[in-house]
C-alpha cells in the first residue's frame, strides 16, 4: 500500500472512531472491516493508541497535581524545603523515565518514584505526622494510577469481539417492517423457516439481534421481536394498516432489500388481480418487480397505508408478484390475543389505522417509511 493510501486510510479510521462518518460512509467502512482483517486490526490498534493517549493525559494532570500539593504545603509551612528544589527533582525524574519506559507501563512505577522523590528530597525528617498524611494522599493517587495502567493492559490483551459482529454466517435474507415502534416486526413465515439465529438490520446498516415470537406457515406470516439491548424505540409508525381490498389497476409501491449490497430499494407497480396464485383468496396479485430479498416487504397504496405483505413472485412471468392482504395480520393478532399465552409485546400491540403521511408526495413518504423497514438475516 502506498504512503498516500496509508494516510487516507488512517484519516478514515480516525473519522470512524470519532463518529464523524455519515451513515453511508460508516456502513461502507464496517463492510470493509469485515472483509479485510488488516483494516479491522488497524481500527483496534488505533483505538487502543487513542485510549493510551487519554491515559497519558490523565497522568500529566496527576503530575501537575503533585506540584500543586507540594507548593501548597510549602506555602502553609508544613514543609520547609524550597519549592524550586522539589520541582527540579520532579523534572529530572520525569525526563529520565519518559525516555526509557512506555507511557502505559510506566504510570504506576513512575508515580511511586515521584512520591519517593518528593518525600526524600523536600520533606523535613522532624514532621512525622505531616509526612504520614502526605504519604496517604499520594498513596491514594498512586493506587488510582496503578488501576489505570491495569485497565490499559487488560484492553490490550483482551480484544473482545464486537457483539454486533459475531461469527455467524447468514445463509438467507428477506425483509421485515415494524408494526409497533417498540421493536415488533412482521415478515413472511418462509423467510425465517428453520432459523437458528435471526438478526435485523436498519437502512443505515445498524444490526440488532431478534427472535421469532410467532409464526403462521398457512398464511405465511411471522412476527419478530428485536431483543437487542442497544435498540431504542422509534416514533410511532407513520403508515396505517388497511383492511380494505385494493382496486384493480390501483398504484402500489414497496420498499425492501432485494439486492446483494444490502441497500434498501424502492419499487412501484399496480394491482393486477384480486386473488393470488391459482385463485388464492388470502393474497392478491400485483405487477411489480421483486426479488427473493423482497419477501416480507410492505405493499402500500398512495395514501401511505399498508395493504399487504409481499410473499413471492411467479417464476415463469417477469414482474408478477403476490402479497398477503393486511386483513390477515389483523386476524392473526386477534387470534393470538384471544389465547393470552403469547409474548406480552404482541398482547399490547395495536395496529395503526390511520396513516400520518397521507398528504405527502411519494418521495417524502418513502423517506418517512424507510426507517421502519429492516433487512432480515437468518442462519
From TrEMBL:
InterPro entries: Peptidase_S1_PA, Peptidase_S1C
Record field: transmembrane: 100-122
Signal peptide positions on this chain: none
Keywords attached to this entry: Membrane, Transmembrane, Transmembrane helix
GO terms for biological process, alphabetical: proteolysis
Location of the region described as Disordered in the Swiss-Prot/TrEMBL record: 146-167
Coiled-coil residue windows: none
Molecular function via GO: serine-type endopeptidase activity
Domain of life: Bacteria
Protein's recorded name: Trypsin-like peptidase domain-containing protein
Amino acid at each position: 500500500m502506498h504512503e498516500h493510501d496509508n494516510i487516507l486510510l488512517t484519516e478514515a479510521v480516525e473519522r470512524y472512531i470519532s463518529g464523524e462518518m455519515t451513515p453511508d460512509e460508516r456502513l461502507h467502512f464496517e463492510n470493509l472491516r469485515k472483509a479485510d482483517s488488516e483494516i479491522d486490526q488497524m481500527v483496534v490498534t488505533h483505538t487502543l493508541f487513542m485510549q493510551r493517549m487519554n491515559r497519558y493525559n490523565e497522568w500529566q494532570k496527576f503530575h501537575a497535581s503533585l506540584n500543586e500539593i507540594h507548593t501548597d504545603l510549602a506555602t502553609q509551612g508544613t514543609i520547609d524545603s524550597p519549592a524550586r528544589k522539589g520541582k527540579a527533582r520532579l523534572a529530572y525524574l520525569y525526563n529520565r523515565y519518559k525516555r526509557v519506559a512506555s507511557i502505559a507501563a510506566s504510570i504506576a512505577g513512575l508515580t511511586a518514584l515521584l512520591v519517593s522523590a518528593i518525600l526524600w528530597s523536600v520533606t523535613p525528617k522532624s514532621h512525622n505526622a505531616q509526612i504520614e498524611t502526605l504519604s496517604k494522599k499520594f498513596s491514594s493517587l498512586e493506587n488510582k494510577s496503578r488501576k489505570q495502567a491495569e485497565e490499559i493492559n487488560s484492553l490490550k490483551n483482551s480484544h473482545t469481539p464486537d457483539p454486533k459482529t459475531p461469527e455467524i454466517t447468514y445463509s438467507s435474507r428477506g425483509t421485515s417492517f415494524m408494526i409497533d415502534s417498540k421493536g415488533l416486526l412482521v415478515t413472511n413465515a418462509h423467510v425465517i423457516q428453520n432459523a437458528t439465529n435471526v438478526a435485523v438490520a436498519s437502512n443505515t446498516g445498524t444490526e440488532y439481534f431478534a427472535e421469532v415470537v410467532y409464526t403462521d406457515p398457512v398464511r405465511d406470516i411471522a412476527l419478530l421481536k428485536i431483543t437487542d439491548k442497544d435498540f431504542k424505540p422509534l416514533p410511532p409508525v407513520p403508515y396505517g394498516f388497511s383492511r380494505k381490498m385494493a382496486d384493480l389497476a390501483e398504484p402500489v409501491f414497496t420498499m425492501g432489500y432485494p439486492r446483494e449490497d444490502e441497500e434498501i430499494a424502492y419499487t412501484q407497480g399496480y394491482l393486477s388481480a384480486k386473488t393470488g396464485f391459482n385463485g388464492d383468496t388470502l393474497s392478491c396479485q400485483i405487477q411489480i418487480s421483486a426479488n427473493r430479498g423482497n419477501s416480507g416487504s410492505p405493499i402500500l397504496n398512495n395514501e401511505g397505508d399498508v395493504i399487504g405483505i409481499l410473499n413471492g413472485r411467479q417464476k415463469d412471468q417477469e414482474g408478477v408478484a403476490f402479497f398477503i392482504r393486511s386483513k390477515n395480520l389483523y386476524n392473526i393478532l386477534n387470534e393470538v390475543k384471544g389465547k393470552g399465552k403469547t409474548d406480552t409485546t404482541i398482547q399490547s400491540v395495536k395496529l395503526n389505522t390511520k396513516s400520518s403521511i397521507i398528504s405527502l408526495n411519494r418521495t417524502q413518504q418513502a423517506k418517512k417509511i424507510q426507517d421502519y423497514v429492516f433487512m432480515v438475516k437468518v442462519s
